[in-house]
Amino acid sequence: MERSLDAILPRTGPLVPGAIILRYEEVLLTISLAAASAPAPSAAAQDPPAFARTEDVVYGRRDGMAMTLDVFRPAKANGLGIVQVISGGYFSAHEMIQPGSIRPLLDRGYTVFAVVPGSQPRYQVPEIEKNLMRAVRFIRHNAKTYGIDPNRIGITGGSAGGNLSLLVATAGDAGDPKARDPIDRESSRVQAAAVFFPLTDLLNFGKPGRELIGPMGHAVPFRPAFDYREMDRAKGTSERVTDAEKLRAITKDISPIYAVSADDPPILLIHGDKDGLVPLQQSESLLKALQAAGVKAELSVKPGADHGWPGMEKDTERMADWFDRYLKAG
């Protein structure tokens, strides 16, 4: 039975941990929201939270609407910040923020910023990426307020959130020194990244030459995220991008592998070798590109794991180890 968007993203209450199964055109797809929703919490995760949560902090506005994030400040903060990208299938909502998924980070003293960067179908991937960059700039601009070092910020996410995290890690910039808004003058770069099963190369998805360009290259539930528009100044209207070369150029821009450079931060990839939604090849290819550029990078392959697996909190502990190694140093 096909599920409605209300079933995918409920308006009230948290998402049920685990995978959401949808049936579209007789194809079963698994959308894991593991990095945006909590895995089954351990007994320790059910203890009273040792953190303060500030909800719906406005980091920017788009189309007259507020873009928000939640701030989780641990009782014993270590002065370092982690951006958690709330996005699965390029859907994003405040209800998807799950404190249990970041408990290992909070337990180690990290201040976590759970960012809702915008959601399909209203926004497409390039716009969502831009929103996320804005969020990182906002966090850096307000680092003193949140008690973190602006020069030691990490980022994490899974699936679509992993793709977006890697776009920040590889394509973040120094900011525009001439911008009227002081937040836009800030850098959107991060100093470490750790992600689950990310999309990294949509021009070679699963195998060389398999291109996922434009909405029709994707499965039904994801198409709105890739239905790009551009302004036709002559008509004064927003028109769908249909030119193949333009679509290919946009697809390249949202594929982190093409932005890899020697100054990228250390990156940890965690991916199942039986992933039926995002092929392991996506992480393997990125790892090779990062290593070729001299970037510190590791890939942890989970044997037999699909797009999400039980016990992911243990892997979040490994991510915390990664951030400990590369954010606490120096």
Account of the 3D structure:
The chain is α/β, with parallel strands linked by helices and 330 residues long. The protein has one domain: Rossmann fold. The protein is built from 8 helices and 12 strands. The strands form 3 sheets. It has an 8-stranded mixed β-sheet, with helices on both faces. The termini are far apart. The relative contact order is 0.15. Mean pLDDT is 87; it is low at 1-45.
Descriptors:
330 residues, alpha/beta, Rossmann fold, 8-stranded mixed beta sheet, two-stranded antiparallel ribbon, 12 strands, disordered N terminus
SSE topology:
Elements: H1 5-8, E1 19-24, E2 27-32, E3 51-62, E4 65-74, E5 81-85, H2 103-107, E6 111-115, H3 125-141, H4 143-146, E7 153-158, H5 160-171, E8 192-196, E9 229-232, E10 237-240, H6 244-253, E11 267-272, H7 280-292, E12 297-302, H8 312-327
Parallel strand pairs: 5-6, 5-7, 7-8, 8-11, 11-12
Antiparallel strand pairs: 1-2, 3-4, 4-6, 9-10
